[in-house]
Amino acid sequence: MHLLVCGGTGCHASASNQLLENLKQEVADKDLAGEIQVISTGCFGFCEKGPIVKIIPDNTFYTEVKPDDATEIVQEHVIKGRQVKRLLYTDPVKKTVISESKDMGFYKKQLRIALRNCGFINPEDIDEYIAADGYIALGNVLTEMSPEEATKVMIDSGLRGRGGGGFPTGVKWDIARKVESGQKYVVCNADEGDPGAFMDRSILEGDPHSVIEAMAINGYCIGADKGLVYIRAEYPLAIERLKIALDQAREYGLLGEDIFGTGFNFDIEIRYGAGAFVCGEETALIHSMEGHRGEPTFKPPFPAQSGYLGKPTNVNNVETFANIPVIYNKGAKWFASIGTEKSKGTKVFALAGKINNVGLIEVPMGTTLREVIFEIGGGIKDGKKFKAVQTGGPSGGCLTEKHLDTPIDFDNLLESGSMMGSGGMIVMDEDDCMVSVARFYLDFTVEESCGKCTPCRVGNKRLYELLEVISKGNGTHAELDKLRNLSEVIKDTSLCGLGQTSPNPVLSTMDNFWDEYLTHIEDKRCPAGQCKDLIRYEVIEENCVGCTACARNCPVNCISGERKEIHYIDQSLCIKCGACFDKCKFNAISVS
Amino acid sequence: MSAIKIKLRENDLKQLKEVCESFNNDPGELINVLHKAQGIFGYLPAEVQEVVAQELKVPVAKVYGVVTFYSFFTMVPRGKYPISVCTGTACYVRGAEKVLDEFKRILKVPVGETTSDGKFSIAGLRCVGACGLAPVVLVGDKTYGRVAPDGVKEILKEYEDK
Lengths: 592, 162
Hints:
Low-confidence stretches of chain A: none
Distance between the termini of chain A: 58 Å
Strand order of the largest sheet of chain B: 2-1-3-4
Mean pLDDT of chain A: 94
CATH class of the largest domain in chain A: Alpha Beta
CATH architecture of the largest domain in chain A: 3-Layer(aba) Sandwich
Number of domains of chain A: 5
Helix content of chain A: 25-40%
Low-confidence stretches of chain B: none
Oligomer: heterodimer
Largest sheet of chain B: 4 strands, mixed
Number of helices of chain B: 7
Shape of chain A: globular
CATH topology of the largest domain in chain A: Rossmann fold
Strand order of the largest sheet of chain A: 9-10-8-7-11
CATH architecture of the largest domain in chain B: 3-Layer(aba) Sandwich
Distance between the termini of chain B: 32 Å
Strand content of chain B: 5-15%
Helix content of chain B: 40-55%
Mean pLDDT of chain B: 90
Shape of chain B: elongated
Largest interface: A-B, 58 and 44 residues
CATH superfamily of the largest domain in chain A: NADH-ubiquinone oxidoreductase 51kDa subunit
Order of helices and strands of chain B: HHHHEHHEEEH
Structural class of chain A: alpha/beta
């Protein structure tokens, strides 16, 4: 029997480490260590209900397990064969108890290719990866295919880059392959900077060998003997697991010299990022690896012609690489049969925000937003109304009700005014103000703009200021016109992808929530009650019972009133934090 | 650069030079060197940058340019208990801004600065990837999930007497 404990960052933060130790201890105490293995795995994806424990072979899926639950799991489930009912998942709508993950709405529509091993194998043990068909693809490619043939498999599969751009991976490899040079490089972009996206990290934490294997295949195809992983320093767990995996691969002769006795040499080094969103752009990333400021440069020349240290370099991101070994094992045809006409395979999304099932999901391209949000995501939190879903992070846009039935793929999202990006998907409800959301993203872009080109450095700052004016209630129609004009100029004239897409959150919210902008400038009102300068909290006298909850929770003590008497809010002192509104159980606080 | 001159301790200086040497004083390794240097000193004051520039034979301006470009590097010492509020989108829509405001209000320092007693510093942090626990606050290595503004006092209390 195996007890799989989620060891992803999300579950780590909820003490899954302690839980793992307790389970191990409990198993040892009962003298079961010979038969029961307790394993720390990568992310299961269902972060909302973490920490997760899965029991193999009966597939029982325990959610929200606390370290103290270890005793009961071992006593009841392992020894007596009785499920611990209180730790099973309850469907939020049907209220039925479900014991296996395959029956849960969250997993039913998912197809896990890039995440195939996450939550299934122990990422720190190469033998488990090999047992799950690991390194077979590399072996086959090296011994049976020429670089040209192997590259053709990638072209035929139709795989497109998962980092945001969506450029066909095989074509990219082919370009790098054809450039003649004594030295070439393979780079893995693990500098996941999109706030709210964490798929790359989860893959490196849960299945690092798949990335290593794919990089080696990539090296063989383009003629590179050196790989570099550019990873965020903020991902300590992923770095640690990657290092372990690299050491094991070297030990097994799967990295190093003369791999599989074919004379092919390949090794991988780790380079650390230091927190700059723009370094997701490949030219900026390469400059950062060379020890410079991560500023992008104009393309062409493309990295495939002149990249790291001036040598031909192929850059792909983690999720793209994670798809590759399976494509060789199951064939390009199999992969191309999944997805839509122009977007093949699956896509991993980090589903977050006002949604019941926050987590990491993987669905075939062509799945609709409605399926993702309402079936997999379990709908909106607290029974509120769906308002928008933001895809593509700071470069993407907000989509609404009318886009819910659009099949998700690269081209459809672009057409709807958003983009795939790296796969962040943030769901918003009726309480979210779209002007504030646009301002939030611009705040991010202003901070992350590298400053090299003027439209991005200065233009985004001006956009931010315009949004600030509007959210303070000082906007007029002139500001709205300026917002749109300036957005178009920034898109057209910026040097790199960051600036070319940064106005998207503004444009898409203006297109889809025009009324909300108008309410802010004409009525000086924020319908969602988020813009501090446009709202005031007041006590509704007939509902107030004088319970003092508001006064006790007010951080600035601006609410006065005796017990069992009506309370009052001193508007001159109120900081509009909303604590009184949240704490009142009698609906006696209004936002206007 | 910072106006206050600090004097590097002999031992730390030696360690810093060893770090540079371990990377063969290669200017291409500047970012890796700075990572290690920040590990030794906790931050990267002007004096440290000058030594790095000297060892790697690059202008101080280049080192300064790199240090200020990346958000991971800091030129101000962090507090004994560095507080990071996740400002990723998932945390934002679940109210991270109000939590951040509450920390600022109670500690009376803006983001990026340290309290005068050196105990706490506040920083915004881009997505830790624990979006299921949004909004997330980190104090040192300890993670607090689903933090509400009224929970801020409780968190600070834990560190008050330490």
